[in-house]
């Protein structure tokens, strides 16, 4: 097989609660690299150190997780990520109350005993995720579409998915990869703790998310030089649905 392997680590931030009580934004972030082990020794060494010291009391999973790590650990991880020269970050941001309900609501029809139909509203984020992931992958792969540098794609998703969600995520990614990239690809679901690059993606995604959700600029500044695309999908929209 000619060409290198492009590794794409995908992480999501925010939730799928499309009500005022949910997060304001949903963010899908990709960290891509051709050399996933380059310069990772510092992060891996810190994981090992903290596993038997700083995490022994408060973090039983023993891996970096931006939303839960103490500030000192978070500062170290961001500094280390900021020195990596082999990763590229892409992110798609969606302001959820601007999302047309047709992307997360469908109607289920049931025939009544009288011969008519009754309709039930069913919440399903499948179409929403499909739209966001398609945009994200296009930004990532547009940089690698031409030439023979990349021979195959490996996509790794580090979030915890239900069986139903894993099914539609896999379906969506396969469709976009087959149509838009047309090179061999492999898709894996892995615990974030299993790969240091999943944890890098978690940190980068969190930096994008808290900037949108809470206006926190400091994490964003740590990774901004690596960001290749940062697309607010509904930025031009004016209608809010809730």
Characterization of the model:
It is a single chain. With 242 residues, the chain is α/β, with parallel strands linked by helices. It has a single domain (4-232), classed as Nucleotidyltransferase, domain 5. Helix content is 34%, strand content 25%. It has 6 helices and 8 strands; from the N terminus they run ββααβββαβαβααβ. The strands form 2 sheets. The chain has a 6-stranded mixed β-sheet, sandwiched between helices. Strands 4-5 form a two-stranded antiparallel ribbon. Strand 6 (150-157), helix 4 and strand 7 (185-189) form a beta-alpha-beta unit. Helix 3 packs parallel to helix 4 (163-180). The longest helix has 19 residues, at 196-214. It is globular. The N and C termini lie far apart (50 Å). The model has no long low-confidence stretch (mean pLDDT 90).
Strand neighbour order, sheet with most strands: 7-6-1-2-3-8
Main sheet properties: 6 strands, mixed
CATH topology: Nucleotidyltransferase, domain 5
- Helix and strand succession? EEHHEEEHEHEHHE
Estimate the mean pLDDT confidence.
90
Instruction: Write down the overall geometry.
Output: globular
Identify the CATH homologous superfamily.
Ribonuclease H-like superfamily/Ribonuclease H
Q: Helical segment tally?
A: 6
InterPro entries: DUF3800
Organism: Candidatus Jorgensenbacteria bacterium GWA1_54_12
Protein name: DUF3800 domain-containing protein
Pfam families: DUF3800
């Amino acid at each position: 097989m000619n060409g290198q392997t492009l590794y794409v680590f995908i992480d999501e931030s925010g939730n799928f609660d499309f009500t005022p009580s949910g997060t304001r934004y949903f963010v899908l972030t990709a960290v891509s690299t051709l050399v996933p082990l380059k310069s990772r020794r510092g992060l891996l060494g810190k994981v090992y150190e903290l596993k038997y010291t700083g995490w022994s009391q408060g973090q039983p999973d023993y891996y970096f997780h931006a939303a839960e790590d103490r500030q000192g650990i978070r500062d170290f991880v961001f500094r280390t990520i900021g020195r990596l020269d082999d990763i590229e970050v892409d992110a798609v941001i969606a302001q959820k109350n601007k999302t047309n309900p047709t992307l997360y609501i469908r109607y289920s029809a049931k025939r009544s005993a009288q011969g008519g139909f009754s309709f039930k509203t069913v919440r399903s984020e499948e179409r929403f995720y499909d739209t966001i992931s398609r945009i994200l992958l296009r930004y990532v792969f547009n940089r690698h579409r031409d030439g023979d540098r990349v021979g195959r794609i490996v996509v790794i998703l580090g979030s915890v998915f239900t069986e139903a969600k894993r099914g539609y995520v896999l379906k969506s990614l396969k469709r976009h990869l087959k149509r838009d990239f047309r090179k061999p690809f492999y898709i894996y679901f892995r615990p974030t703790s299993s790969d240091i690059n999943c944890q890098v993606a978690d940190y980068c995604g969190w930096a994008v998310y808290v900037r949108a959700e809470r206006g926190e600029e400091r994490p964003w500044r740590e990774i901004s030089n690596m960001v290749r695309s940062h697309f607010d999908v509904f930025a031009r929209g004016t209608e809010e649905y809730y």
